[in-house]
Structure formats: C-alpha cells, structure tokens
Request: fold
Amino acid sequence: MWCYKRSLYLSDLVGNFIYIKKKLNMTSYINMEVIRVALNRVIDSKSPKDAKDSKVSHYEHTVGTVSCALLQHYFPLANGWIITPEQRQIHLKKPDFVVEKLSNKDLIPHIFVECKKHKGDSFDKIMRQVSVAATMAAEFKSQDDFSVFVIACRGLEIAFFEYYNYHTVLDESNIYHYEGLIPLTCPLDKQEDYFRKLTPLTLTSIPTSQDELTNLGVKSSREMEHSYIWDLSNAKHQNYIHMLFLHMIQGSPRQHVIG
Reply:
C-alpha cells in the first residue's frame, strides 16, 4: 500500500512538473502576431472627435479586443480555463471578463478583468468598480472569505492585483491595500521573503521596490502610491507582464500568508 501511494505521489509530482514547465515555456504575448496587431490597432486608432490627441485609442472595444486576446492566449480552454464576458444583470455589475478554472468538476473564479478606454475612468475608479463587483460576486457565491486575481486595463496600460473581500483582516494585519486590492508588485510588508519562497518560479524576477519600479517607468495613482501600472507596448515592461500572467496561471492569491 505504501509503495502504491508513493508511486501515485511521484506520478503527481512528475505530472505537475511537466505541466508547470509547459506553462513556463509559454511564449510571451508580444510574440503572438494577432496580439501585436490588436495592440497596434489601439495605438494607431484615433478618436474622430479629437484627432489631434494622443494616438492611444478612445474606443473601449479595441481595448477589450486586446484583453480578450491576452486571456485566450494565457488561459486556453484546452488547459481547463473558461472565459465569460460580462452579463449585465439587474442590481449586479459583473466584471468585463471572468476567468474560471476547472477544479474538482466545478468552475472556480480565478480572475476578474475590467477594461476601459484610454480616456475613460482612472485606475482609482476602476479599482473601486472592481471591488464592488467582486464583493457582489463573493456575496452571490455565499463565501465569507473570497479572494481572486484582478486585471485592470486602460488603453495600453495594465495592472495586476489580488482582491480580498475581508478588508478588516488586511487592516488588522497592516497590509497595504485599496478597497481590498493589493498590487502584485507590492510585497506584503515584512513577509516579502516568505512570499517569494512560495512562488519561486515566476516572481523572483519581478521588481517590488518603489525605486526599481519607478526606474522602469511603472506608474502609480492618487489612491495607490506604490507603482503598479504597466504598459503593454513598452519593451521594458513586456517580459515582466508575461511573468505576471504566468504567476496567475500557476498560483493563487496570497491569503495563506495573512490567515
């Protein structure tokens, strides 16, 4: 019996290693022609009402196209993921996309995605909107402690978060957050080393110090001073964005380090 269980355990380890290696070898979004074309459409298109303005598109659907392409690339159906676009319901605002993963014959919410045009809502407003939508989703699922990854897109800018609906626990633990949202670039105070040990495959190369992020041109916002806003078209950002996507494929929010 012991040998049988041990062989199953080793089999699982080998299978998981192959699966992780396959995901780590996934090509970056910028190497996919269809995504480059979608990005270029955002860059090149102009609002007819303000043709002299920045080249970044004013059309939300072009940003949605990029977001949809990124999600289809990193979270394909064949790997057990399913992507659902927003379904408007009375008194219930859902994110633009919900990415769920197959687990024990059930679909578990893994990522909420919100998209805005370049001249649309600020990232602070996007964060408030996502927090409200996530809270509603948590109540709908009847979960007391709900956590999920969040992606926010605004024009060519993109940000990655973890969301927790138990804000008071974050406050009591002195963990930096805004409406339950924590940027993936933000270390959990003094627990940064522990966090990195838990996810050595992708996040060991992600900068988290404010100086590093500022030097890379990663932006912040009024409500969240720690830099967290990346640029999909910036060559200095593209590999980091790719690694953040890989982290979301492999990992889960860091609730286990604050429990």
